[in-house]
Design goal:
single chain, mainly alpha, Leucine-rich Repeat Variant, 3 domains, 67% helix, flat
């Protein structure tokens, strides 16, 4: 029987309606006492073999909704003569997640039909059944890539280190190398790391990249010297992934990589420079501030943005003077990232600049500026925010300005919020936000007044 892919199911309104009707009719019948739960389950199990795939999977989803009471019937369905019934039953058992289904699903891995194997393997992964590891490893040699893909997923979900070695053998596979690397990253141990550290000598750049992906998941500091070495790899993609991965370690662990990453800012490949910039930001490298400031003038916008973000992550106030001129940049994304970084740095020199951006021509920049002023917490921004609300038309920006006023607080902010909360011409969402924020401000005020009164009486 031809079986269409699940991703093609329930793509239309009729299929979703069918699912709802199945659930609704079953629930109502049970309420009326006309169709006991057991009979309803059996009826739905029979529906798994319907020629209409939408009906078949609607039945499966209804059984998933019922949950544990349907497990025994679904396990029995794994022995059905119809491969479609077995396949969809395996799918449902994986979604229900009852461990009783583990052994029957392992037995289903002997089925001759790829669709049954795919759903059974995936279900075992969802069950995270460690007893399934050995039979799943055997299926890595199956001649159907879709089946092998589900097996790789399952092994990664289970996370047993003994699956690492056979998965590493797939690193050079064009289709399965990446998923296999992710699976190894989920299941690797110290022994796995040692195997991965022996892969830089491979002539295949895909194998070297996938070894980095796997190490990214395991994140063992023992991999740091290997990753530093990969910063000089002949393949730009390998250099990029190594630079990016080094930034994912804790700053103290990544300390040996700081200077090599700074050196990588001068790489001839912009993508490598970008990855190095982001990683230097993540590990908080103060030494990287001057070379990152140089990249602020680069013609490559992605690299420019990466440098801006890194400076914000590092949080060095000395970078503020270099960032502020970029608020005149023509690129919206650059201006937005500069606003974010100025807020991250938290230097009050940025307040006047952010106030001026409340009048920027782009509403997203105005929104970011308002949000930033609220986070910086400088009361000088209250009146400019109130003034901006007099002319601002964009609902998202108005909401950001209202939230900023709530963060800043004070009598003037409260009065402005009170006006907005009672203005029936205001956006409803903005009005509601103003009302909620005002309530919180007033609650804090009452609590402070009560505390002062208690202190005075004592």
């Amino acid at each position: 029987m031809h079986m269409i892919k699940r991703c093609e199911l329930f793509s239309c309104r009729q299929a979703k309606l069918l699912l709802l009707l199945l659930l609704f009719s079953g629930i109502c019948a049970g309420c009326l006492g006309q169709d006991p739960l057991e009979a309803r389950v059996e009826k739905l199990v029979r529906g798994l073999g319907d020629e209409d795939q939408n009906v078949s999977y609607a039945s499966a989803y209804a059984l998933i909704e019922i949950g544990e009471p349907s497990v025994d019937s679904l396990i029995k369905a794994l022995k059905d003569d119809d491969p479609q019934v077995r396949s969809v039953a395996a799918f449902a058992l994986g979604r229900i997640g009852d461990p009783r289904a583990s052994e029957p699903l392992i037995e289903a891995l002997d089925a001759p039909e790829p669709e049954v194997l795919k759903n059974s393997a995936e279900a075992l992964g969802e069950l995270q059944a460690p007893e399934a590891v050995d039979p799943l490893i055997e299926l890595l040699d199956y001649d159907d890539d879709e089946v092998r893909s589900k097996v790789v997923f399952a092994l990664g979900a289970i996370g047993d280190p003994k699956a690492a070695a056979p998965l590493i053998e797939l690193f050079g596979d064009e289709e399965l190398g990446g998923p296999a690397a992710k699976a190894v990253g989920n299941s690797g141990d110290e022994e796995t790391v040692e195997k991965l550290l022996g892969l830089p000598d491979s002539r295949d750049p895909d194998i070297r990249i996938n070894s980095i992906y796997a190490l990214r998941g395991i994140r063992d500091p023992a991999a740091i010297p290997f990753l530093i070495e990969m910063l000089d790899d002949r393949a730009p993609d390998v250099r990029r992934e190594a630079a990016f991965t080094l930034g994912l370690f804790e700053p103290e662990e990544a300390a040996p990589a700081e200077q090599p990453l700074i050196n990588a800012l001068g790489n001839r490949e912009p993508e490598v420079q970008e990855a190095a910039a982001r990683s230097l930001g993540w590990i908080g490298s103060k030494e990287a501030v001057p070379p990152l400031e140089e990249l602020l003038q680069d013609k490559n916008q992605n690299l420019q943005i990466a440098a801006v973000k890194a400076l914000g992550d590092i949080g060095d106030p000395g970078a503020v003077d270099s960032l502020i001129p970029l608020l005149e940049d023509e690129a919206l994304l650059v201006r937005k990232e500069v606003v974010h970084s100025l807020v991250e740095i938290g230097d009050f020199r940025a307040v006047d600049t952010l106030i001026s951006l409340l009048g920027d021509e782009n509403h997203r920049v105005r929104q970011s500026a308002a949000e930033g002023l609220g986070k910086l917490g400088d009361e000088r921004a209250v009146n400019p925010l109130l003034k901006a609300l007099e002319t601002e038309r964009e609902g998202d920006v108005r909401a950001a300005e209202v939230r900023a006023l709530g963060g800043l607080g004070g009598p003037e902010a409260a009065e402005g919020l009170r006006r907005i909360s009672t203005d029936m011409d205001e956006y409803r969402s903005v009005r509601t936000a103003a009302e909620e924020i005002l309530g919180r401000i007033e609650d804090v005020g009452e609590a402070n007044a009560s505390s002062s009164s208690s202190s005075s009486s004592s």
